Amino acid sequence: MMSSFSPPKPKTRLRGVVFDMDGTLTVPVIDFPAMYRAVLGEDEYKRVKAENPTGIDILHHIESWSPDLQRHAYQTIADFERQGLDRLQIMPGTAQLCGFLDSKKIRSSSTVFKITFSPALSREFRPYKPDPGPLLHICSTWEVQPNEVMMVACGKRAGAFTCLLDETGRYSADDFTKSNLQPDFRVSSLTEVLSILEANFDLIP
User: How far apart are CA 132 and CA 72, in angstroms?
Assistant: First the structure.
């Protein structure tokens, strides 16, 4: 009896990994619901939250406000972020994953503690995520195509591979069906990202 042989499916080339920061590279320490309430007010917060079950895009929401209201909102956000910096902790698995990327000479972007990423974009960069603009800017800086990059947290709209870090099982499949932004991979720790990269991609600088 002759047995058929199917050659393994070629892996996709991956040249860069882009990280979101809070809740991905760092342990979440900011009380986002409290921050959103402080910025929006209780009634508006409840309305916006009901319309956005996967999360509130606060920066886009306040962009249409008057300059005075925007200044007050940004100051409130900055106050919460400043409090969070005092308790900032690196996410378990970050050093191991970043060391692996460095060993493969794979580009990475973001910033946290003494680990250096380039480029590192802050909220001053416009347009805000989840608009694809920030990720496309990083790809242009690296001189790579979006489909040669993975975004750990968000990035589907830019055409990149996406990996959702969901430590607590917060998100369900239905959450992403509504937005049509289902991530390509889903993990509960950064250590799992390393395994996904090795199993699914040719890591070529």
Answer: 27
Residue with tokens 């589907």: 156
Q: Is 20 a catalytic residue?
A: yes
- How many helices and strands (H and E) does the chain possess? 8, 7
pTM for the full predicted model: 0.71
For 138-191, the pLDDT digits (tens) are 889 999 998 999 988 755 566 789 888 888 777 776 766 656 667 889 898 889
Q: How far apart are the first and last CA of the chain?
A: 44
Among 53, 57, 33, smallest CA distance to 174 is for: 53
**Which 8-state DSSP code applies to residue 8?**
P
**Active-site option among 22, 57, 131, 175:** 22
Question: Is residue 184 flagged as an active site residue?
Answer: no
Please state the separation of Cα 182 from the chain's center in Å: 14
